[in-house]
Amino acid sequence: MSGTSPGMDITMLSALAEPNRMNIVQLLRSGPLAVGEIADQLGLRQPQASKHLKVLSDSGIVEVRIDANRRIYTLRPEPFQAMDSWVQSFRHLMEERFDNLDNYLRELQNKDKP
Q1: How many DSSP H helices and E strands does the chain contain?
Q2: What is the pLDDT of residue 1?
């Protein structure tokens, strides 16, 4: 887990840091797609798309289903739920900081008034 909360895996962030893989995830938000469809829509060669999909699969972001001679990829919800929980764990801290900033700005505005 390397410095992340339970359920949040750094390999997911690493996998999503690559723009083509992020684009694949964006495509798969609309529903399952075959490798060829992903490659066509992103302007990638099929071997490139397959390599990116392997990384996404190894990190648990997508799952693959074999249908005859096609590999169909689908997003898995669990990694995104874990990421959402991890991000939400910072919400209180960030809200407190924004409140402090808001209070400070109000103080500055009140000092400027005669």
Answers
A1: 6, 3
A2: 40
Cα–Cα distance, 87 to 110 (Å, whole number): 34
Residues 21, 16, 84, 9, Cα dihedral to 10°? 130
Give the whole-angstrom CA distance, residue 111 versus residue 113.
6
- Residue 8 pLDDT level (bands cut at 50, 70, 90): low
The pLDDT of 48-52, averaged and rounded, is 97
Query: Contact at 8 Å (CB) between 22 and 8?
Result: no
Contact 26, 38 (CB under 8 A): no
How many CA atoms lie less than 13 Å away from 60 in the CB half-sphere? 14
CA 87 to CA 46: how far, in whole Å?
34
Unique residue bearing structure tokens 């109000």: 106
